[in-house]
Amino acid sequence: MLEGIIIKAIGGFYYIKTCAGIIESRARGILRVEGITPLVGDFVRIRISSEDNSGYVEEILERKNELIRPPVANITQAVIVMSAKKPDINTWLLDKFLMMAEHKNLNIIICFNKLDLSEEETNRLKKTYELAGYEVIITSSTLDIGIEKLKEALKNNITVFAGPSGVGKSSLLNRLNKDFNRETGLVSGKSKRGKHTTRSVELLELGENSYVLDTPGFSSLDLSFIEDVSDVRLYFREIKEHGKGCRFLSCLHDKEPDCSVKKAVEQGIIDKDRYKNYLLLLEEIKNTRRY
Ligand SMILES: Nc1nc2c(ncn2[C@@H]2O[C@H](COP(=O)(O)OP(=O)(O)OP(=O)(O)O)[C@@H](O)[C@H]2O)c(=O)[nH]1
Ligand SMILES: [Mg+2]
Ligand SMILES: [Zn+2]
Predict the structure, then answer these.
(1) In which residue ranges of the chain is CATH 3.40.50.300 found?
(2) Which of 29, 157, 177, 196 is buried most deeply by CB count within 10 Å?
(3) How far is the CA of 136 from the centre of ligand 1 (A)?
(4) Which CATH class, in words, describes the domain spanning 229-288?
(5) Rounded to whole angstroms, how far apart are CA atoms 212 and 288?
(6) Which of 117, 122, 137, 141 to mutate to test the pocket of ligand 1 (most atoms within 8 A of CB)?
């Protein structure tokens, strides 16, 4: 049996990258009976049928994790792409993306693209998020800045590119490898809905053991994975860190006394806007989890 990774799935066919090349396969009947659907990103064992020379997925190896949107398994890293301008930065959305990636335990890189449009604002954002404890890479896909650094960070990872529509996710991927041929910039100016130009789920091979996944931009995130208000603390990296010094273990860093987080905000060690978004998220979760 051959081992490989599913890089694409279309209409019941799975395209599996193996040491013998890419093999088109179907899922074995038993998987359907067991109610298991192979996902892009799955490591699988396949058998080549001697009758028709086509592949059959016999076994799915254990998944490290699973994303629902897009449906994909074994992602190790998220590059969250944002821009300072066009579209304007939305830190509320960025912080939600970060929460999601933290929740999935992914390695996280924030990429501020379109440096050419606003150097000052982009550098300010970089500082803010580095202060929060994140790795930040600044790029301009138009001017070919930061691409090598990005490429380096993608090695030996299966990386999902996420972020709102129009920030340049697909443009960056084309810079990483021009053969990727991702469609870019088809956001219709007339129907302001912003047409999603990126649809199918496919791992793009960047090098040995390195894959990237383009996703359509989305502007709202489902936070139903947060079960309890107190969990919000876990998904803000610097708040989690500074919260260790609070008087109460249960401190939500809101109105409690002797709160290290609030102290750090006053001292400028935690960014004010990050803290503001944290409080807003607390409110949002409180309101939606009240039943
Ligand atoms: N000025 C400037 N424009 C850029 C840059 N990168 C991308 N763009 C432009 O931004 C627009 C959107 O780029 P896309 O790559 O399609 O954005 P996307 O994030 O893939 O968008 P969706 O697929 O809709 O989620 C295109 O017109 C690009 O040419 C950049 O670094 N600087
Ligand atoms: Mg795109
Ligand atoms: Zn506190």
Answers:
(1) 72-213
(2) 157
(3) 19
(4) mainly alpha
(5) 34
(6) 141
Note residues around ion ligand 2 (Cβ under 5 angstroms).
Answer: 169-170, 197-198
Within the chain, all domains assigned CATH 1.10.40.50 are found at 229-288
- Determine the pLDDT at residue 189: 45
Give CATH 2.40.50.140 domain extents, the chain.
Answer: 2-62
Q: What is the DSSP letter of 262?
A: H
User: Could you give the percent of the chain with pLDDT greater than 90?
Assistant: 80
The per-residue pLDDT of the chain, averaged, comes to 92
- Span from the CA of 184 to the centroid of ligand 2 (angstroms): 6
In angstroms, the CA 251 to CA 48 distance is 58
Helix (H, G, I), strand (E, B) or coil at 59: strand
- Gap from CA of 135 to ligand 3 centroid (Å): 25
Indicate the burial class of 208 (C-beta count within 10 angstroms; 0-12, 13-18, 19 or more): exposed
pLDDT tens digit string along 140-171? 999 999 999 999 999 999 999 999 999 999 99
Topology of domain 2-62, CATH: OB fold (Dihydrolipoamide Acetyltransferase, E2P) (2.40.50)
- Stated as kind and residue range, the H or E segment containing 235 is none
State percent of the chain over pLDDT 70: 94
CATH number of the 72-213 domain: 3.40.50.300
Distance between CA atoms of 52 and 31, rounded to whole angstroms?
20
Helix H, strand E, coil C: the string for 3-18 is EEEEEEEECCEEEEEE
Q: What angle is formed at CA 100 by the lines to CA 98 and CA 105, rounded to 5 degrees?
A: 90
**pLDDT at 223 (0 to 100):** 87
Q: Pick the residue whose CA is nearest to atom 27 on ligand 1.
A: 185
